[in-house]
Design a protein that fits this description.
Shape of chain A: globular
Largest interface: A-B, 26 and 25 residues
Strand content of chain A: 25-35%
Number of strands of chain A: 8
GO molecular function, one term (chains A, B): DNA-binding transcription factor activity
Family (chains A, B): Belongs to the MraZ family.
Distance between the termini of chain A: 29 Å
Structural class of chain A: alpha+beta
Number of domains of chain A: 1
Oligomer: homodimer
Main location (chains A, B): cytoplasm
Strand order of the largest sheet of chain A: 1-7-8-4-3-5
Radius of gyration of chain A: 16 Å
Protein name (chains A, B): Transcriptional regulator MraZ
Pfam families (chains A, B): MraZ (PF02381)
Order of helices and strands of chain A: EEHEEHHEEHEEH
Chain lengths: 146, 146
DNA sequence: CGCTTTCCCATGAGATACCATGCCTCGTCC
DNA sequence: GGACGAGGCATGGTATCTCATGGGAAAGCG
């Protein structure tokens, strides 16, 4: 599978519609999917996106009889319960649910960040902060400025 | 098989009718079924739902004459015995038996939770409690606040 | 004959598809 | 090398359709 790469900032209109970057769409359509799957990422405060194949794999790994007493089952439960499949409209846009936009603090603009097998959707300001606090120190430790 | 994903809250009217989320119906109809199969889940206090294909798989695995002494047969026996098939009305609703609603504490509203191959139907308040007590601690253990 | 259950219709809200516009990028021609 | 032109992509608005939900009528059962 081709990786998701690059960073793009697109507008979010009042209905919650966003254009998925064409490069990302190309990756998914090469796999035969006309949708993205998204879920909130509470650890980082953004939205995580990927293809349906990733979710189907997770579903297949989860036993028929969900044993929620198993602590290992809780993360899978949460991912499946909180994921939503968003299909592209004819122009390549998706409608992100309002509650998910709120969870990520996204209002009128969103940043798509390719991370290989998955990608993220950020509030632009939050993403800038994340880069400054989480990524730049690591880069500086390696001796690179930015 | 496409997985059941996402969380939806729908109204239960005075007759016990509930709209099955359209996304869930689409999964079942892709399999050729116009119904859901439900059974009470006494361990968690909710209703468990799935497609008839799952029951057929269980039935195939179960011997003609159920040997109740076999501990492996007991879960399949119980699931088969307690399951009810609920067919969609023309609008995509099902009529949940009153006793099952009572067992799950559901009165005027129900939460559908997709879990891949199966889904759950909860009393909204009970589901909120379940998420707070069973899922959030797991997330906090990983270092996340919410 | 009354009651319960099932089917059908109507309505409003929300989501989806469609159409149109402008910008930016890339390719081509002069 | 610069200007022009074409195509793709992002974006905004509008129309259509699906879905969820409530009520009512008809049929089956006790």
């Amino acid at each position: 599978m081709r990786p998701f790469i690059g960073t793009y900032e697109n507008k979010v209109d009042q209905k919650g519609r966003v254009s998925v970057p064409a490069k990302f769409r190309a990756v998914l359509q090469a796999e035969g999917y006309a949708s993205i799957v998204v879920r909130p990422d509470p650890e980082r405060g953004c939205i995580e996106g990927y293809g349906m194949d990733r979710l189907e794999r997770l579903s297949d790994m989860t036993p028929d009889i969900v044993n929620l007493g198993d602590p290992n089952a809780a993360p899978a439960y949460q991912i499946l319960a909180e994921s939503e499949e968003l299909t592209f409209d004819p122009n390549g846009r998706v409608l992100i649910p309002a509650w998910m936009l709120e969870a990520a603090g996204i209002s009128d603009s969103a940043v798509f960040v390719g991370l290989g097998r998955v990608f993220q959707i950020w509030n632009p300001a939050a993403h800038a902060t994340f880069r400054a606090t989480q990524l730049r120190p690591a880069a500086q430790a390696r001796g690179t400025g930015a």
